[in-house]
Specification:
Blueprint (H helix, E strand, L loop, with lengths): L1 E4 L2 E4 L8 H12 L11 E7 L12 H15 L3 E7 L3 E7 L5 H25 L11 H5 L11 E5 L2 H12 L1 H4 L29
Antiparallel strand pairs: 1-2, 3-5, 3-6, 4-5
Length: 206
């Protein structure tokens, strides 16, 4: 049997079965690998989190920046946007990315929204007339180096109408599940209030 060691081929001199500790080691190493998004085209439920879980997404003025950037990215990349919900420390999106794929969509959205949000925050900090927002979380007030997304994102590939309907309900009811409101319609930063900006879903056979 040939093995590649340091770029050179060498013969394995003794055969021995893979021991349990070695199997465990391999499994641990695979678990430690970063998330890889194999599927890039189709319909996806995406969750992207704030860095360190700091709840800045619903800070005064920021949700509209996120929505504007989400719609802008949709338009530029010729994607389709179906649902979203902005939570304090994360965001849910149901979409079908354009031909560039899901990773390019999320990279563009997160980079541009981060830039616009930090420009907005810096402008407010320089003008005391605008810097009147308050947060119940001291981590937001203590943030001086900028507001950022956590690296990467989580995605679920939607493959059936049943799965899509279940995901839609989950996204819309997320504020209720987190006990932020008692009715989904009372949460202002949801696509429930921006249906005019959303794309129509195709009818899928079960």
């Amino acid at each position: 049997m040939l093995l590649i060691v340091g770029g050179r081929e060498t013969k394995q001199t003794q055969k021995r079965p893979l021991s349990i500790p070695m199997v465990f080691f391999v499994m641990v190493r695979l678990e430690a690998l970063p998330q890889i998004h194999y599927s890039q085209l189709g319909t996806f439920h995406v969750i992207t989190n704030t860095k360190d879980g700091i709840p800045w997404c619903t800070r005064d003025g920021i949700p509209q920046i996120l929505i504007d950037n989400l719609v802008m990215t949709r338009n530029i990349q010729e994607a389709r946007l179906f649902k979203f919900c902005i939570m304090p420390d994360h965001m849910h999106i149901l979409l079908c990315p354009g031909e560039l794929g899901l990773s390019k969509f999320m990279q563009s959205f997160k980079c541009q929204s981060t830039r616009d949000i930090n420009i907005f925050i810096n402008d407010r900090s320089r003008d005391p007339r605008l810097n009147n927002s308050r947060s119940s979380d001291p981590r937001v007030a203590a943030t001086t180096g900028g507001l950022y997304w956590q690296k990467g994102y989580y995605d679920e590939h939607i493959k059936s109408s049943t799965q899509r309907a279940r995901t839609t309900r989950y996204i819309q009811n997320n504020p209720v599940n987190h006990k932020l409101v008692d009715d989904a319609s009372k949460w202002p930063w949801s696509s429930l209030h921006y249906e005019n900006l959303m794309d129509e879903m195709d009818i899928w056979p079960d």
